[in-house]
Each structure stands twice: as C-alpha cells, then as structure tokens.
Amino acid sequence: MAMNVQPVAALSDEVNELRLRTAQVINDDVLPLEPTLWNSEDEAAKAAAKEARLDIQSKVKKLGLWAPHLPEEFGGMGLSFMQHAYMNEVLSYSPGAAALFGVVAPNSGNQKILVKYGTPEQHEQWLKPLTEGSMQSGFSMTEPMNPGSDPRALTTRAVLDGDEWVINGHKWFTSNGFGADFFIVMCRTADPDDPAGGGKMTQIIVPTDTPGVNIVRGVPVWGKRSNHCEIVYDNVRVPKENQLGRTGTGHQAAQDRLGAGRVYHCMNSVGAMWRAFDLMVERLMTREVHGGEKLEDKQFMQGFVAESYIDIQSARLMTINCAEKMETGGDPRTDISAIKIAVPAAYHRVVDRAIQVWGAAGVSGDLPLAGMYQGARTLRLADGPDEVHKILISKLVLRRYHSGESWDFGN
Ligand SMILES: Cc1cc2nc3c(=O)[nH]c(=O)nc-3n(C[C@H](O)[C@H](O)[C@H](O)COP(=O)(O)OP(=O)(O)OC[C@H]3O[C@@H](n4cnc5c(N)ncnc54)[C@H](O)[C@@H]3O)c2cc1C
C-alpha cells in the first residue's frame, strides 16, 4: 500500500510541496524495493542492495531532497525546523529510508554538533567528508559502569598534556563503532583546581585509528550482532584542536543534540506508526477467519483501528505542537519531555496491534513490523529514559505552581 499524502490547507505551500515530493520518492522508488534494499543475506545480496541504495540516493540528490537536517552552506536543504519535522514524518514511512535522504544516526547528530560547535578547520576535515559520505562517525557517551541517564556521572577523563588531550575511559553502545572513521567522545575534562578531580564535560573528536582506541566488541542488541560497540580508551592522544567548542561545553552540546533531535525522532515514530496502521488495516480488510468473515467485521479488531487512530493523532498533534513552540521561541522543555514519553509509548502500542492482526507474519522478516517493535521499545530507554523525563515534567510544572502561577495549557 502506498503512503497517502495529500495537500493540507493549514500548511504552507512549501511544506505541502515538500511532503508530496518526499512521499513520491517513498512510493515510487523505496517501497517497491523495500524487501531487497537492506538485504545482507550474502555478498551478492549485499552488493545489489548497496547499488539500489546508491541509485535512490543519487535521485534524491537530483531532486534536492538530500540532507534535510543541514544548512545549505554545509550541503543540506536548509529547511526550517517545522519543514524538517514534516519531512521526517514522510520519509520514516519506510524503516531505514532516512539513510536514502542522507540522514543516518549517529552521523546526523554529529553533523549538527559539528555545524554548531566546529571550527572552519573541523568543518573542512570532518563535517564535509561526513556529509559527502566519504567518512562515517560514532557518538561515544554511554558507559557500562555509570548511568547513561545521568551524563554528569560519566567518568571518562581527558587531561591536557601540552598540546594534546589524553583520554582514558570505558564506553559502550557507541553506534557505528566498527564502521566509523572518527568518534565524538564525551569526556570529563580535568579541572586542576578541583581537588576532587571534577571538571565539566567536553566533546572531543577521536579518529578511530588513534593508538589506544580499543574496540572490545559489538554489543549484541535484541539477540543480534550489532555495530553498537564497547570501547576502551587507553591513553588516547589527540591534538588539542580536536575539542569541539570551548572546554566544558560538552553537556550543553549533548543537550543541543538531543533537544531538537527528540522532536525529529518523534516525527519519525509518527511516520512509522502511519505505516504500521496502513499495514494493519490492509490485513483486516483481506484476511478471512471463521466462517468467511473478514477480520474487519470483528469488534475486537475494530477496537484496534480506533485505538490506533487515537494513538497516532494524539502523538502527532503533541509533536507538532511542541515543534511549533520550538520554532516560535517558546519554552519547549516540558513538551519535549512529554512527547519523548508519549510518542514512543503510542508507537509501541500501534505496532503491537498491527503485529497481533498479522499473526505469525507480524513477527516474521517479511514485514517491517518486528523491527519497528524493537525500535519502539528501545526508544523508551534511549534519549533519556521515560522516568527521567517524568521527573523533569513534574519539576517544571511544580516550580511554576510554587512561584504562584498555574499552568497555561494554551501556551
Ligand atoms: C540501540 C541503542 C543505541 C544507542 N546508541 C548510543 C550511541 O550512539 N552513543 C551512546 O553514547 N549511547 C548510545 N546508547 C545508550 C543510551 O543512550 C543509554 O542506554 C541511555 O542513555 C540509558 O542509559 P543506561 O543504559 O546507562 O541506563 P541507566 O542510566 O542505568 O538507567 C536504567 C534505568 O533506570 C531508570 N532510571 C534512571 N534514572 C532514574 C531516575 N532518576 N529515577 C527513576 N528511574 C531512573 C530508568 O528506568 C532507566 O531506563 C544506545 C542504546 C541503545 C539501546
């Protein structure tokens, strides 16, 4: 089933045009090839898949739809925040399709950090090849021995020795670990005046072939081999110029990366839910059960349709509301945390129902639903686990009431 994207009266001409153009690529070029695009069964399948992906990427570039997350001067589309959010929704209808439009995590987050914090030299050396696709990168923050949900607890240290940072620490879940040319590593930069050895965080670019970067293993995820790597940094020396931004700005840079990123991730989830919904309804209309009745005639199944519709609409409208606040300069913190909790949970429920409707086929590799289910579940603990965001929402709300004001839900 093709994605049904129509012009919307409330949206600008630019956004409508962007949604329609993106949907056309998804429908004409991506969906028909979906079963083969990511096939890695054997070398021949891998090579064919890569060629097919390159073909689509070159078409996407010709159509001016490449790198929606980057400014034009850095090879991207130069979209506004809202335009980017709406485009993400459409391109996420097919799992993994974002990569065909030049958006691949963690490269995309790293590109944004490099745009904002990088020097002109760093742009030339790292950002340009990353955008052109001649380099790959990883983001190395989470540590096995410390809670990733509290970045202040990270212990990987970087100490300045002459003109070099010397890095020691232990990370894991560094995405793209095996394929990356460089990692952006979140380090506690030592403060010599702090007797407790404290210090703030700084993000430092580490080429992966630097002596002392020891990739221990790819940590299996959902029972499968993965590219999310455990890495020991053992006296790794990189030039001082490899630090991103001023010393001590690493935490802020991580927040910059995650804040806007959460809105985009939620729009991705909405696009994926849309697909799961289409798949579910398609099956309800065709599958006959006891006595030749269609699944769509069963009330249990009709409940699935209604509940999923409500889940998608509420998740989508919350996300768009939050994105509008971000674009118009309002304080989006409460809403970012709210969508970070609500949208992955809705996504999880919608995919769960679609799997139920499809029965065994739902968990097979023939449909994208099983992968979506794992993705939805993972989102509830990544990007800040739900519980941490609940704490933040209640803190922000209660602070307002304690200051004598109540909440304005219209704002
Ligand atoms: C597929 C995948 C890809 C990833 N990619 C990357 C990557 O590219 N780079 C990277 O650095 N990391 C990456 N991560 C790691 C991810 O960011 C962390 O797993 C996440 O930040 C949570 O940290 P943690 O696993 O250490 O959990 P912890 O911090 O140990 O938290 C575990 C649980 O404790 C609970 N909890 C935590 N704090 C509180 C609290 N204050 N109150 C109540 N309950 C609480 C929550 O339920 C939470 O889920 C990835 C993870 C996955 C699964």
Q: From the alpha-carbon coordinates, what is the Rg to the nearest angstrom?
A: 22 Å
Helix content: 40-55%
CATH architecture of the largest domain: Up-down Bundle
Tally the beta strands.
10
Largest sheet: 8 strands, mixed
Note the run of SSEs as H and E.
Answer: HHHHHHEEEEEEEEHEEHHHH
Helix vs. strand class: alpha+beta
User: What is the mean pLDDT?
Assistant: 94
Highest CATH level, the class of the largest domain? Mainly Alpha
Q: Which range does the strand content fall in?
A: 5-15%
Bulk shape: globular
CATH 4th-level superfamily of the largest domain = Butyryl-CoA Dehydrogenase, subunit A, domain 3
Determine the N-to-C terminus distance.
38 Å
Give the low-pLDDT segments: none
Number of helices: 11
Key terms for this structure?
411 residues; Butyryl-Coa Dehydrogenase, subunit A, domain 1; Butyryl-CoA Dehydrogenase, subunit A, domain 3; alpha+beta; 14% strand; eight-stranded mixed sheet; binds flavin-adenine dinucleotide; Butyryl-CoA Dehydrogenase, subunit A, domain 2; 10 strands; 3 domains; two-stranded antiparallel ribbon; 11 helices
